[in-house]
Design brief:
The protein has helices spanning about 5-20, 30-40, 55-65, 80-90, 100-110, 150-160, 170-175, 185-200, and strands at about 45, 70-75, 95, 125, 130, 135-140, 145, 165, 205, 210-215. With about 220 residues, it is of the alpha+beta class. The protein has two domains: about 5-110, Rossmann fold (3-Layer(aba) Sandwich), CATH 3.40.50; about 125-215, Orthogonal Bundle (Arc Repressor Mutant, subunit A). Strands 4-5-6-7 form a four-stranded antiparallel sheet, covered by helices on one side. The chain has a three-stranded parallel sheet with strand order 1-2-3, sandwiched between helices. Helix 2 packs parallel to helix 3 and helix 6 crosses helix 8 (about 185-200). The chain is globular. InterPro entries: CheY-like_superfamily, OmpR/PhoB-type_DNA-bd, Sig_transdc_resp-reg_C-effctor, Sig_transdc_resp-reg_receiver, WalR-like, WH-like_DNA-bd_sf.
C-alpha cells in the first residue's frame, strides 16, 4: 500500500490484515514505487495525492516497467474524469474515499493476482492465443506478447466467454469497474489496440449493436 495519511494507512492495514492479507506500507510515492519494482506483490493499493512523486506518476511508471502488476487506486479525488483517466491509464480498479471496509476487501480480493500453486485454472487457450492467468502473460503461437493490464483483463473476459457477445456496458463494468457510461469510446479503442497487439484481428469480432465476441475455433 502506498498511502501518506497515517490514519487512513492504519485503517486500511487493519482492514486488510483482518481479512487475512499480509500488508506492507510506504508513505511516499518514491518509496512505494521502489518497493513495487523490487518485490512481487499480488496487488498495489495506491493513493493519488502523495508528496513528491504523486500517485499518477507511480501508476505510469509501474505500467511501463511492470505492466503485469495490478494496481487499485484508493483516493478522495472526486472527479469522474480523474477516475476514468486513472482506469484508462492502467489501474485495475478505483475506490473513492470514504469507503466501506467490506467493499474495500471485496475489491482487493477481486483484483489480486491468483496465487501460484498447481495449474488448475491457470491456463486459458483458444487457437493460437494462450493466457497464463497466474502470471498474467499472453502468448500467440508460442511467442510472448506484452499487454497492459487493462488489455489483458479485456482479453481474459472475452476469451472466457468465447462465442458469446459481450456488451460494452458489461465490459466497462467487469474490466474497468465502471457501472456508468463514462462518455468515451474507451472500450472500442482498447479492442482496436488489443487486435493490433495480438496480430489476430479476426479473433475479436464486432457484434453490431451489442459489442464484441471472441471467435471460437
Amino acid at each position: 500500500m502506498i498511502e501518506d495519511d497515517e490514519r487512513i494507512g492504519r485503517l486500511v492495514t487493519r482492514a486488510l490484515e483482518g481479512g487475512g492479507l499480509l500488508t506492507e506500507r510506504a508513505s511516499s510515492g518514491s518509496a512505494g514505487l521502489d518497493a513495487a519494482l523490487r518485490r512481487d506483490y499480488d496487488l498495489v493499493v495506491l493513493d493519488l495525492m502523495l508528496p513528491g512523486l504523486d500517485g499518477r506518476q507511480v501508476l505510469d511508471q509501474l505500467r511501463e516497467r511492470r505492466p503485469e502488476q495490478p494496481v487499485l487506486v484508493l483516493s478522495a479525488v472526486p472527479e469522474i474524469s480523474t477516475r476514468v483517466a486513472v482506469l484508462e491509464a492502467g489501474a485495475a480498479d478505483f475506490l473513492g474515499k470514504p469507503f466501506a471496509v467490506a467493499e474495500l476487501l471485496a475489491r482487493v480480493r477481486a483484483r489480486m493476482r491468483p496465487a501460484p500453486g498447481g495449474d488448475g485454472g491457470r491456463w486459458l487457450r483458444i487457437g493460437p492465443v494462450q493466457l497464463d492467468l497466474h502470471r498474467r502473460r499472453v502468448t500467440v503461437d508460442g511467442v510472448r506478447v506484452e499487454l497492459p493490464l487493462r488489455e489483458f483483463l479485456l482479453l481474459q473476459h472475452l476469451m472466457t466467454r468465447a462465442g458469446r457477445p459481450c456488451s460494452r456496458d458489461e465490459l466497462l463494468a467487469d474490466v474497468w469497474g465502471l457501472h456508468f457510461d463514462p462518455g468515451s469510446n474507451v472500450v472500442d479503442v482498447s479492442v482496436r489496440r488489443l487486435r493490433g497487439r495480438l496480430d489476430r484481428p479476426d479473433r475479436i469480432e464486432t457484434v453490431r449493436g451489442v459489442g464484441y465476441a471472441y471467435a471460437t475455433d
